[in-house]
Amino acid sequence: MGLYLSKSRFCSAVQCPKMLWLKQNKPEEFDDEVMDQNVLNRGSMVGDLAMGLFGPYVEVPFGDLKEMLRETDRLLEAGTPIIAEASFSVDSNFCSVDILKNHGNGRVEIYEVKSSTSISDIYLYDAGYQYYVLDRCGYTVEKVCLVTIDNTYVRHGDLELSKLFAVTDVTSEILEKQVEISEYIDMLREYMEQTDEPQRDIGAHCFAPYSCGFFAYCTRDWPHPNIFDIASLQNRSRFKLMDKGIRSFEEVEISNAVNDKCMLQVQHELHDLPDQINEEGIRAFMDTLSYPLYFLDFESFQPAVPLYDNSSPYEQIVFQYSLHYIPEEGGELYHREFLAYPGEDPRRAVAEHLCMDIPRNVCVLAYNMGFEKGRIAALARLYPDLEEHLMNIHGNIKDLMVPFRSKDYYNRAMQGSYSIKYVLPALFPDDPTLDYHNLEGVHNGAEASAVFEAMMEMEPSQLEEYRGHLLRYCELDTYAMVKVWESLMNIG
Ligand code: SF4
User: Could you tell me the distance, in angstroms and rounded to a whole number, from the CA of residue 238 to the centre of ligand 1?
Assistant: First the structure.
């Protein structure tokens, strides 16, 4: 089968040529879960915004390829100075250039837009492939630049595209890659002619620069569970084990080549060991807590393009919290919550409501507290009039994750993880009220962020429906913490 190469297919092949072969020959084996829709949406939103970086432009409409090529020719001949999505094809190699500066007489500049804040090597191949195509089409490419997000930008008033985007001239780097790119394309054409599935071992290339959706397929003959199921093992260590021929949990146990925390998971899985409970350790943690006791959880989103004054690209913006609290020992459980309406900066309202809902000098539990503490400190910096109260809350936060991270409590169902999404079903396997799958609309933090962003475009009735989903999701987060705390109380 002939190979028609686009820039994204070329970049896939740079990561792993087998990935391209499988995309062409076994697309049904691709696991869509590796595609993060939030990231894709962000990329296209940033791309649209960047089109205006150099002033007025004309965009080649996406559609029929021949029509895109014709429209590009027409715009170039008409002397259009800035063209978005200008499209080119030569020898079955195709590319659309995010932003093309047209200086006339075949002299052009290529600007490749990325929603990232840094430059990775794969971007140089991406831009380098575009240079390859335009060069073979007969254009004189005078400059190739990468356009990335500058996360030091702080918005004040109208968005300033020239400050939001960082433009890096990578012409010399991509020129150095041209021989390699040309040879690689020739190699790929032969590679893709193979009818038998190519052999390629899994390795670091399966996860970088992007997670490959064929990983389950490429490891279909592996034993399960295997080293990729060991939660606290880095990929680097997994590949070292793989090099020694260690793949199954049985082989891990015999080799004794992992640390105690990893071995705990392996042995509980292999031998169905009873729960590990260090009562002393749990009691020591519980003794650090006091009444009134608060359970706090935030939800946030990270707009690539800052929406509010005094915010930066990708800043975590808290828009919601849930708070359960117990005033005194044996007392009732109460609940408070806050969820901003989309459209205005939620941070001031979050900070004010937090100060109203959480008194000074009370014990506050969060799960994986670094996130909550980081957000509260950021709010304190932003609002000096609330700083003292916010930092008092900050100073009184304790982490409910501690007994699980330290393995003072461990059971097999936690699968080596101490995330609450594993701890909760491990402690309450049969409680449907604690099962996130039974929620509607929002089941995890990523969905909560996406829903809040989507709410900005919703009609009022739909907006209220999704507010309900968000409120129930976040409430379950802190209710789950209460239940986890109760379990520890019964032990410690
Ligand atoms: S899982 Fe790894 S080896 Fe298999 S196609 Fe993807 S990158 Fe290549």
Answer: 15
Locate the ligand 1 atom nearest the alpha carbon of residue 202 and give its number. 3
In DSSP notation, 341-383 reads PTTS--HHHHHHHHHHHS-TT-EEEESSTHHHHHHHHHHHHH-
What is the DSSP-derived secondary structure letter of residue 226? B
Nearest to 422 by CA among 401, 391, 450: 401
- Structure letter (DSSP) for residue 398: E
Q: How far is the CA of 130 from the centre of ligand 1 (A)?
A: 24
Please check whether the two domains, 7-193 and 276-492, share a CATH topology: no
Ligand 1, atom 2: nearest CA belongs to which residue? 206
The residue ranges of every structural domain in the chain are: 7-193, 222-271, 276-492
Q: What is the pLDDT of residues 298-346, one digit of tens each?
A: 999 999 999 999 999 999 999 999 999 999 999 999 999 999 999 899 9
Q: Kindly report the CATH number that applies to the domain delimited by 7-193.
A: 3.90.320
Which atom of ligand 1 is nearest the CA belonging to 200? 3
Q: For ligand 1, what atom is nearest to the CA of residue 205?
A: 7
CATH class, 276-492 region = alpha beta
User: Model pTM?
Assistant: 0.91
Pocket test for ligand 1, best of 218, 219, 235 (most atoms within 8 A of CB): 218
